[in-house]
């Protein structure tokens, strides 16, 4: 697990966007199921001034497979939650975190041999 926080801004108020406990419970529930399935192995959380990011890795030293972003400035537009792929393409965006994460839950459902 990697947690990154930016250094405080000298002489200014450092306001950060972060995931709330209920949001983290939803994300970590999905993360735990994917770890149990052997798909994911590590994650990182970044709390920046305009966005909070939960990055998901297959291995520790790789680029993130997926990024779950929270951008409160987009709350009244297309939604503040988004899932981005490895290439930065938006896979799903919306107002409700559970519905946005469904795009990743599809990866969990597979045919059993």
Automatic annotation (TrEMBL):
InterPro entries attached to this UniProt entry: DUF2794
Top-rank lineage group of the source organism: Bacteria
Pfam families in the cross-refs: DUF2794
Name the record gives this protein: DUF2794 domain-containing protein
Source organism per UniProt: Pseudooceanicola albus
